[in-house]
Amino acid sequence: MSRTQTLPPQHQDRQPGRQEPMHPQPRTEDPAYKAAGKLQGKVALITGGDSGIGRAVAVAFAREGAEVAFVYLDEEHDAGQARAAIAAHGREALAMAGDVGDADFCRRAVDRVLERFGHLDILVNNAGEQHLRNRIEDISPDQLYRTFSTNFFGLFFLTQAAVPRLRPGAAIINTASVTAYLGSPSLLDYSASKGAVVAFTRSLALQLVSRGIRVNAVAPGPIWTPLIPSTFPAEEVSRFGADTPMGRPGQPEEVAPAYVFLASDDASYITGQVLHVNGGQVLNG
Predict the structure, then answer these.
(1) Catalytic status, residue 190
(2) Mean pLDDT over all residues of the chain?
(3) Which domains does the chain have, with CATH numbers?
(4) What is the mean pLDDT of residues 38-57?
(5) Tally of CB atoms within 10 A around 278
(6) Going by DSSP bridges, is the β-strand pair 214-220/67-72 parallel, antiparallel, or unpaired?
(7) Contact 125, 154 (CB under 8 A)
(8) Could you report the per-residue pLDDT of 172-231, keeping only the tens digit for each?
(9) What is the pTM of this model?
(10) Which residues are CB-neighbours of 150 under 8 A, at least 6 positions away?
């Protein structure tokens, strides 16, 4: 392995990507993590919870005592693995297949959580997709709509459905991206959609603060998730994360504690903020 190679070259031809064929497997559960019951009695709904960051957050929440519901598109094997990981900590997850870009599905998902658990305390808008294009001329209207449908409209629709059901003390956590701050010449529409997530987070935090609901975001840097091999050519995957100060990609288990913090009462005086988990890239905001 060369000095700049961080992973074995690999590529998946199908989006969304699958976690099961990745090598090495993303680490979604840190065995050294010490839970402290920070989310005991809480109910969380997580989008993109079948794999990557979403699965790591779901497992961490379960370890902290939360009941967990998660949404995935159609990755049945990954969803089964996520359910098993959550069950290993004494929680039976509610898993729902569907497209977050569909407002009706978002309303049904929230209704199912309420029917199953009786209340909803934590919403994590994490589902995302990205498509590699090196020229703006190559981004089709369909791609632009699809990227924003998953990354922003879905976040908006699910939050819109959930907010009337949230109680004071609830938390909303959105997944932004380092690209919203640094930009990306080959992920133009993705970066723009994540910039919208940041602006939405700050604005909604101001709107909901009087209702006792906190709204924050996490902006991951290069994290080893199925999004990566399903987006980039194999050779580019092999150098993934090498340009960070830490010289490597992060693992989902290294991002999950930021979500636990923002969901818990430890963050009771924090709203409208973005936590940057990116291997040392210093950013403003």
Answers:
(1) yes
(2) 96
(3) 43-277 (3.40.50.720)
(4) 98
(5) 24
(6) unpaired
(7) yes
(8) 999 999 999 999 999 999 999 999 999 999 999 999 999 999 999 999 999 999 999 999
(9) 0.97
(10) 99, 100, 101, 127, 128, 129
Read off the tokens for 97. Answer: 């297949």
Residue 180 and residue 134 in contact, taking contact as beta carbons nearer than 8 Å: no
Strand residue runs (E) in the chain? 43-47, 67-72, 94-97, 120-125, 166-175, 214-220, 274-277
H and E: helices and strands count for the chain: 9, 7
The answer on pLDDT for 285 being more than 90 is no
Q: Give the pair of three-digit tokens for residue 61.
A: 């929440």
Tokens for 255, please give them: 């991002």
3-state secondary structure of 193: helix
Q: What residue type is assigned to position 171 of the chain?
A: A
Amino acid at 244: T
Q: Which residues contact 258 (CB under 8 A, 6 or more apart)?
A: 218, 275, 277
| 216 to 34, 123, 198, 202, 204: CA distances (angstroms) | 23, 11, 9, 7, 9
Q: How many CA atoms lie within 13 A of 58 on its CB side?
A: 36
Reported in sequence order, the residue ranges of 26-142 that DSSP labels E, i.e. its strands, are 43-47, 67-72, 94-97, 120-125
Question: How much is the average pLDDT of 222-242?
Answer: 96
Please, what is the Cα angle at 117 between 77 and 31, to 5 degrees? Answer: 50
Residue whose tokens read 């969380």: 44
Q: Which residue out of 145, 190, 259, 269 is catalytically annotated?
A: 190
